[in-house]
């Protein structure tokens, strides 16, 4: 009764007890944790979320403590895991000690800059931190800031000591977390005595109890491993079996074999994974020493592939590779290569003695618990990983590895003497298990592709030794006997989700560093004496009886389920055939041509495959009596030619069916073992029948001039029969002499898929069908020898076969598939030049379809479905090739004069098809598309698209027919709102631009009065510092500024920081004008607009300057009044603006109209703009333009700096004579003369030039930027960073954060929780 109450109240401890008892006693490979998860109160799949194991450890301990409140085990966690340490601050002035004691369940250990656990403990608990300078301590006794000393000391140590290695860090520069995979060592035995606070008279907890300075030793018993990255990973663990509960076998006990061919049993050289293993194997077969050329030749003979073709791209030339592996190969001056490992007298060095290049991580010697007084080197058996170059510890303590201090100590018990003694010299390779430096990444970790860079694995060496000696597999031995396990209490096991496997101590060295590295360490107080075999703690006896009986019941149920499972898995069904029902013809066994003999007479027998052949015979005698006695049972198989008999299993009566590889569904043939129907039967694989399809003429005269009808027959022949025997058989069929029978094979080329004829001459009559590589279904042509010039039967068959297409038909017309998204497919053969209508009729006939809506139509599905096919075309004309898929769907087929066009709204993504006559006009097609889309009105037009569906030119000639517009079936058209102008007319938007500066003409270049006027306009306002927001660089009204706190930078538009127009822009109206009209005619038409009706204009030249507007900015000025709109590339939707001039102007074609603005000294702003017209016919050098501007603003050239503003990038290009240009081919910079019309200046109409007077603004002469430029650059940078972030996110998924190509946002990290009832109130 008490037990039931405990089960109901103390759920978590009981579920933990049940789980561990099941792991110990249940006869099952794994145990479920549903009960434990339910006890945690998890209902939303919390167990599937990824959490930190250290966090789970602390929360689980807290939950257990809360669950045990009010019981005898209330302080269980505290007694086992809780320790205390003190933080002391000692005032250097008065000696006052401020002390704070804290408890811990685990000790966090930072890895950065620390080689191992003992160094970290010394820095944490033995070193003192001085608080001085800006970091001084406020002493409560002195009441002021004083120098002080801070130190941390352990006060009480728990029986189980836990260390949490802080491998996850945060990179503040990159703004992301990362995993520290650097090397961090830990010992097997840890002495904690030096890390107490004995210097102040205090002793650690157990030390105080023991009295005196007794050594406090801990021994490692568990290591938790984390494999993966910061965002995903997997935990495994190494656990030491102190209680001798596990069955330990050496993990290297299974022999490893070289890759061999199953048929020949020889070494299959092509199967070697790395070039090192391949070269070592080849050199051993060649005696261990050979020239490089002979080695390459031998490699090509053995593998069929040369070094250059297989390895050069990854490893370089063979000479380079051999020299890069000095541990295995020796290359002398005569280019002769030898195996370095063939020297049996070499002493096997330590793996750590291998010199590593700079940047590689080298396995360092582990730090020991205590310094050793004797500095002499330890014996080799105890210094397996000791580096002779590292004799001094980081703090000057000279340490030597002791037998009890390091992981390496126990690993050296593995003896290598047997390897060296047998004379094969493999001990060097067996000792060198480290990955070469070429396979390590920048962090020094061993890469995942270690086997791809030529590493000889230990398994390979063991296999080589086995191959060479042929005596016994070479495995690692423990103290002279390979089967002897480690001493009790020193056996390790590796736990993961798949299995629990034995592990050697040396395996712990692999988790010092890398992606799979140690994450938590568990030490327990060392016992005075380890238990011997069979003397371990009685763990089973500590399990309550009620729990033992419960698990015993589960074991009984498991045994019953296992027995039922074994029966279900091993029960096979065999098909038994009786020889009385079969006859032998055409090279194989067939059912007798008797209506009473059917497949129903085949007897099905179920039997356990673990039973013997004798048991099978007994079963068959019960099922079919009087049919088995006196007969033999053979395994048979159905082949295309018929039934064929293989092995006779009656001779192996005591073997099981599993040993004889009798599988489920196998066919068994019961016969007398010699004949079937009086005909002797050959059995076995060598005489398998091959079914050949032979085409011949039913009758023909000698010479082959007159031919009969073609016929095709199937012939089954044993594959070990000769071509001559087949020729004799065909001669009797053709009724011609054997010498006149010509046999040809019609073969299909694997590349071109075309059929070709191969004549099988009489010289090949002694070859077998297997040697000729004839297979089931091969086509042969048999005929009498023909005269030259007469087409043979074989060529006729090949031509007919070449004219056949094998296609896949997808049926979308079946009535029961109307709501399905998966359609059945059928394979069909059709003549290449067949009409689409004929092919469709053949499909309907084969699929037995009728009454299809519209008669049905076909379309070609080549990656994406094409348009419906015209039925008057042939398959060749529409581009059908071998293997194409053709869709049969409801609907009427288009006629030859119709086009099927795809349509889509310019603002949508849904597409639909319309069928229109190719003689229809663009207007009629547009009306049909509008009706099919359900749109209203006539304000619509059509636009073409390119190959990727992007909008291109408008179909503006509404009277043109579709055939003249080069539209084809399957083209995609966009429908857009807006009515088109008449044919050859364009609709232009017209605006009036009134500049805020006096209009300027070429007269400014010579008229001193006008020059002084421009000077006063530009420079005076700059000198007084006109505000940029009033007349200078203002933002465009079309791009309102947004609050950066409301919208992220990468979502803002940089156009809001473009400089505003230097004037006022007012929209007038839109006009329609012929495409071939001149600029002069455009000006005349603009005069007719109502907005300019009151203007008094003497002449057109005096009236207007017309220019293009591009994206709301002033663009190209139309200078030649006789140029047409077509020449200036004006299209419907283009925008032009006009400016009323004060003086008549006639600009040459080489003139450039730009704006200049003077920079306000001491401010990052500019004054109002002015206009300058420069004629490039004078010079295109930047110096000439600078001189002109200098003369206009009356500033000396030496004091004037001019730069062009690049609008899209918010940058300024200073005008200078030369620019450094980088050559793409040679990747060198060279100085080139500048041209204002070419890159990088590219001066065009409407550009802005900034002016800086260095007399008043001497600082940073090349800096012309404004605050708006900075804000615009910030937006551009944010946009680029966002793109880079998305690309990185995508590439990270494709590599090994392994989320997949379609990135899903990571879940928000939520802390793990375990829900525990409040037992304090209930108690």
TrEMBL record:
Residues 388-400, 1290-1299 have a biased composition (Basic and acidic residues). The keyword Transport does not apply. Residues 1-276 form the USP domain. It comes from the Eukaryota. The keyword Hydrolase applies. GO terms for biological process: protein deubiquitination. Residues 367-488, 1278-1309 are annotated as: Disordered. Residues 412-421 have a biased composition (Polar residues). This is Ubiquitin carboxyl-terminal hydrolase 40.
């Amino acid at each position: 009764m008490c037990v039931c109450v405990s089960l109901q109240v103390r759920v978590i401890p009981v579920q933990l007890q049940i789980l561990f008892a099941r792991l110990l006693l249940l006869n099952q490979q794994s145990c479920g944790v549903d009960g434990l998860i339910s006890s945690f109160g998890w209902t939303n799949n919390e167990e599937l979320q990824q959490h930190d194991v250290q966090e789970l450890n602390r929360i689980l301990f807290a939950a257990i403590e809360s669950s045990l409140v009010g019981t005898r085990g209330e302080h269980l966690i505290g007694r086992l895991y809780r320790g205390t340490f003190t933080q002391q601050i000692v005032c250097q002035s008065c000696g006052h000690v401020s002390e704070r004691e804290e408890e811990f369940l685990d000790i966090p250990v930072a890895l950065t800059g620390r080689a191992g656990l003992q160094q970290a403990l010394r820095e944490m608990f033995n070193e003192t931190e001085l608080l001085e300078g800006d970091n001084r301590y406020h002493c409560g006794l002195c009441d002021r800031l004083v120098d002080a000393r801070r130190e941390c000391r352990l006060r009480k140590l728990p029986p189980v000591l836990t260390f949490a290695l802080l491998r996850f860090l945060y990179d503040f520069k990159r703004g992301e977390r990362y995993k520290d995979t650097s090397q961090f060592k830990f010992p097997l035995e840890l002495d904690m005595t030096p890390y107490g606070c004995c210097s102040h008279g205090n002793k650690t907890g157990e030390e105080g109890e023991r009295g005196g300075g007794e050594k406090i030793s801990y021994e490692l018993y568990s290591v938790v491993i984390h494999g993966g990255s910061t965002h995903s990973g997997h935990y495994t663990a190494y656990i030491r079996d102190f209680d001798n509960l596990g069955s330990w076998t050496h993990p290297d006990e299974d022999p490893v074999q070289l890759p061999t061919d199953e048929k020949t049993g020889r070494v299959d050289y092509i199967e070697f994974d790395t070039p090192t293993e391949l070269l070592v194997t080849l050199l051993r077969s060649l005696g261990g020493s050979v020239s490089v050329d002979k080695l390459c030749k031998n490699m090509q003979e053995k593998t069929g592939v040369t070094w250059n073709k297989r390895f050069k791209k990854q490893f370089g030339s063979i000479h380079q590779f051999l020299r890069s592996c000095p541990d295995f190969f020796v290359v002398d001056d005569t280019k002769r290569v030898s195996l370095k490992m063939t020297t049996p007298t070499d002493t096997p060095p330590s793996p750590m003695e291998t010199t590593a290049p700079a940047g590689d991580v080298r396995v360092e010697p582990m730090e020991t618990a205590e310094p050793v007084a004797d500095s002499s080197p330890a014996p080799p058996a105890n210094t397996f990983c000791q580096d002779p170059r590292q004799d001094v510890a980081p703090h000057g303590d000279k340490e030597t590895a002791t037998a009890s201090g390091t992981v390496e100590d126990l690993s050296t018990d593995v003896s290598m003497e047997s390897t060296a003694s047998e004379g094969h010299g493999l001990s060097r390779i067996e000792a060198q298990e480290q990955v070469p430096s070429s396979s390590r990444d920048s962090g020094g970790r061993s890469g995942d592709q270690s086997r791809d860079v030529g590493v000889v694995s230990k398994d390979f060496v063991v296999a080589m030794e086995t191959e060479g000696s042929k005596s016994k597999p070479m495995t690692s031995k423990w103290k002279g006997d390979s089967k002897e396990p480690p001493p009790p209490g020193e056996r390790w096991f590796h736990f993961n989700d798949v299995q629990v496997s034995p592990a050697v101590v040396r395996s712990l060295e692999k988790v010092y560093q890398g992606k799979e590295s140690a994450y938590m360490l568990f030490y327990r107080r060392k016992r005075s004496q380890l238990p011997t075999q069979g003397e371990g703690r009685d763990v089973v006896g500590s399990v309550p009886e009620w729990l033992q009986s419960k698990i015993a019941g589960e074991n009984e149920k498991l045994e019953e389920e296992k027995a039922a499972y074994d029966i279900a898995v091993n029960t096979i069904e065999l098909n038994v055939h009786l020889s009385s029902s079969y006859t032998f013809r055409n090279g194989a066994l067939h059912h007798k041509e008797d209506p009473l003999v059917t497949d129903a007479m085949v007897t099905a027998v179920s039997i356990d495959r673990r039973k013997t052949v004798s048991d099978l015979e007994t079963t068959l005698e019960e099922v079919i009596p009087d049919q088995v006695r006196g007969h033999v049972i053979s395994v048979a198989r159905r082949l295309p030619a018929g039934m064929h008999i293989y092995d006779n299993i009656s001779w192996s009566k005591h073997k099981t069916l599993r040993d004889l590889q009798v599988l489920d569904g196998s066919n068994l043939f019961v016969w007398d073992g010699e004949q079937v129907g009086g005909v002797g039967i050959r059995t076995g694989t060598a005489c398998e029948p091959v079914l050949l399809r032979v085409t011949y003429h039913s009758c023909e005269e000698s010479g082959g001039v007159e031919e009969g009808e073609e016929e095709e027959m199937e012939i089954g022949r044993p594959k070990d029969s000769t071509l001559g025997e087949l020729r004799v058989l065909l001669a009797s069929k053709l009724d011609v002499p054997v010498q006149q029978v010509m046999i040809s094979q019609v073969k299909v080329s694997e590349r071109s898929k075309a059929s070709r004829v191969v004549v099988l001459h009489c010289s090949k009559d002694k070859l077998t069908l297997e040697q000729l590589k004839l297979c089931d279904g091969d086509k042969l042509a048999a005929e009498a020898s023909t005269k030259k010039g007469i087409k043979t039967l074989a060529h006729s068959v090949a031509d007919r076969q070449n004219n056949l297409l094998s296609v896949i038909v997808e049926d979308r017309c079946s009535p029961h598939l109307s709501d399905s998204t998966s359609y059945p497919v059928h394979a069909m053969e059709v003549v290449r030049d067949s009409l689409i209508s004929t092919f469709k009729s053949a499909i309907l006939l084969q699929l037995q379809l009728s009454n299809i809506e519209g008669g049905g139509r076909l379309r070609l599905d080549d990656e994406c479905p094409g348009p419906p096919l015209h039925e008057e075309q042939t398959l060749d004309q529409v581009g059908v090739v071998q293997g194409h898929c053709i869709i049969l769907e409801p609907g009427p087929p288009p006629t030859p004069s119709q086009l099927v066009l795809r349509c889509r709204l310019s603002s949508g993504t849904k597409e639909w098809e319309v069928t229109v006559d190719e003689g229809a006009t663009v207007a009629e097609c547009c009306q049909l598309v509008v009706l099919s889309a359900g749109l209203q009105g006539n304000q619509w037009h059509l636009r073409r698209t390119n190959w990727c569906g992007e909008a291109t030119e408008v179909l503006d000639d509404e009277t043109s027919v579709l055939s003249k517009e080069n539209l084809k079936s399957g083209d995609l058209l966009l429908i857009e709102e807006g009515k088109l102008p008449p044919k050859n007319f364009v609709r232009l938007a017209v605006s009036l631009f009134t500049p805020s500066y006096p209009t300027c003409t070429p007269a400014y270049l010579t008229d001193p009065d006008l020059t002084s006027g421009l000077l006063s306009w530009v420079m005076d306002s700059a000198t007084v510092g006109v505000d940029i927001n009033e007349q200078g660089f203002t933002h465009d009204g079309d791009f309102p500024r947004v609050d950066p706190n409301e919208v992220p930078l990468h979502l803002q538009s940089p156009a809001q920081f473009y400089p505003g127009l230097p004037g006022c822009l007012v929209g007038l109206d839109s006009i329609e004008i012929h495409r071939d009209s001149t600029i002069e005619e455009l000006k005349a038409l603009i005069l007719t607009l109502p907005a300019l009706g009151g203007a008094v204009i003497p002449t057109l030249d005096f009236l207007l300057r017309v220019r293009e507007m591009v994206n709301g900015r002033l663009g190209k000025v139309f200078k030649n009044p006789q140029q047409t709109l077509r020449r200036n590339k004006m299209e419907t939707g283009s925008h032009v603006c006009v400016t009323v001039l004060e003086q008549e102007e006639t600009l040459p074609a080489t003139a450039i109209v730009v704006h200049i603005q003077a920079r306000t000294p001491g401010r990052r702003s500019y004054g109002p703009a002015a206009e300058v017209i420069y004629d490039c016919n004078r010079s295109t050098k930047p110096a000439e333009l600078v001189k002109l501007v200098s003369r206009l603003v009356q500033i000396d050239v030496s004091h004037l700096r001019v730069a062009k503003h690049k609008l899209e990038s918010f940058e300024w290009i200073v005008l200078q004579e030369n620019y450094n240009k980088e050559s793409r081919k040679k990747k060198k910079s060279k100085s080139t003369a500048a041209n204002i019309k070419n890159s990088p200046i590219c001066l065009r109409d409407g550009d802005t030039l900034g002016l800086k007077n260095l007399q008043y603004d001497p600082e940073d002469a090349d800096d012309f930027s404004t605050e708006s430029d900075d804000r615009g650059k910030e937006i551009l940078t944010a946009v680029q960073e966002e793109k880079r972030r998305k690309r990185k996110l995508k590439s990270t998924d494709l590599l090994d954060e392994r989320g997949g190509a379609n990135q899903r946002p990571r879940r928000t990290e939520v802390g793990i929780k375990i829900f525990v009832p409040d037992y304090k109130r209930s108690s």
